[in-house]
Amino acid sequence: MALLSAALAWSKGAGLRRVDLTVRVGNVRAIALYERFGFQVEGVRRSSLVVGGQYVDEFLMSVVHEA
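Given the sequence above, the corresponding structure tokens read:
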């Protein structure tokens, strides 16, 4: 968590307006972590990953730094 916190602080200090990430839809622990840091789901990338020979979806998530 410290690394994610540091990365978000750096991005804000560097003047970045937003930070994006993708996460597998079924990865509920990671999604919960990202949501605690302010990330919101913006969309779904359907069948974008192959896991165990199966195509799975992933969420596009972002956090927007307010001015």
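Strands lie at 18-24, 40-51, 54-64. Try to locate this feature in the token string yourself.
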